Amino acid sequence: MKCDSLLADCVDTGLILLDRAGRVRVWNRWIAQRAARPAAEAFALTLAEAFGAHIDPRLALVVREALDFGWSARLSHALHPMPLPLFQPGGDRSERMLQAIDVTPVDADGERHCLLQVHDVTETVRREILLKQQARQLRQDLQRLSRAQAELQRSEMRFRELARQAPAGLFEADSEARCTFLNERCEQLVGHKLADIVGRPWLELLPAGEEVRVRDRWLLAVESATRFTEEFRYPHPDGRPLWMRAEAGPLRDEHGHISGFIGTVQDVTEFHERASRNEFRANHDSLTALLNRDRFERHLRAAISGAREVTDRLALLFIDLDDFKQINDTHGHQAGDTVLKVVASRVRRVVRCEDRVARYGGDEFAVLLVDAGDDLTLASIVAKIAHAVALPINLGHCHVRVGCSIGVAVYPDDGADPHSLLIRADQRMYGAKRGEL
After folding, report:
1. CA–CA separation, 436 vs 412, rounded Å?
2. How far is CA 49 from CA 21, 35, 76, 287, 339, in A?
3. Among residues 19, 67, 14, which one has the least CA distance to residue 45?
4. Quick one: pLDDT at residue 92?
């Protein structure tokens, strides 16, 4: 490790290596100089301990994803300019250094680590700003050279007529989002005439939560002189909940300042509904609408990871229906499907909304109880589930009853990883079925 640290000190970029627990193992000289903390002090600290509470929370998220799931990420200077409190060596430390950070999972000593490569992009940003200023000046010069008032007036008239008859929703708004033009198709989409909303920002037509989010995006587009592109929920005046997509390019005045935007509006409700259905199908059982096995196990891995950080207690329950095959053989598979759906609904009602319930396969169910509490509380929950499952089930022509065997595994008492807990809960479930527990 000493040799690794010497090599890391020779690199003209910041290197931080975190172990599986998120603690510093390598902290090279480049980082030490800009963080004003020597490697000896930073060793074995978490990022939060090493930098205090002044790091971008998105960095902590991607580090956790790299350690838990092996995902790589990049925090670009354009979207996340200053994730860490780093400052230029010898400066007055009044302003953070502009950064880009690559987060990469690496295997070392048989365990997954996370490597952070921090790049100083201050000079790059300065050059980009300079190039934008030069490009802006060039555009202004071209505008002055090409300005012809009579032709502009004729062009505007042609545009207005074409826009009025266009099949797409077209709009024009000033920098404050106040609409100055809506074509007929746009008025149909939003359910308002231009005269009804003139002088009001169109953002006020959105629900409160959406209005704040989309307004921030609009102001960002105005400030950065970039295109505005956003999808948002829109309550149509006739009561329909819609999804809209707005795309607009900036308009400039004679001084090169953003005077507004011109763009299109589309109804993308069908696309969102289709995407939601596809996502639901990919993560849920088609019969019971519970989580499927793959999605449940992902929740289990994430819950263990979170519990490991705060030393919480989790419980994993395996539920197997007793004599379910007899119901299928006696009353048919449609009756069996009814029983599965009723059992799924009952188990879901017994547990809390933050707990996870899945159909694990066939007549087996799994439950993840977060913050499981003590053994007495857990036993009470198991008893409630067993009681709920055992209640009569109406098949239309008759009532049937079905019992269940439940196996319980507790983190960290019965295992510290998903595989161990799944095996232990499965063993105890079969033990309960055989009358051993």
Report:
1. 23
2. 13, 12, 24, 48, 52
3. 19
4. 79
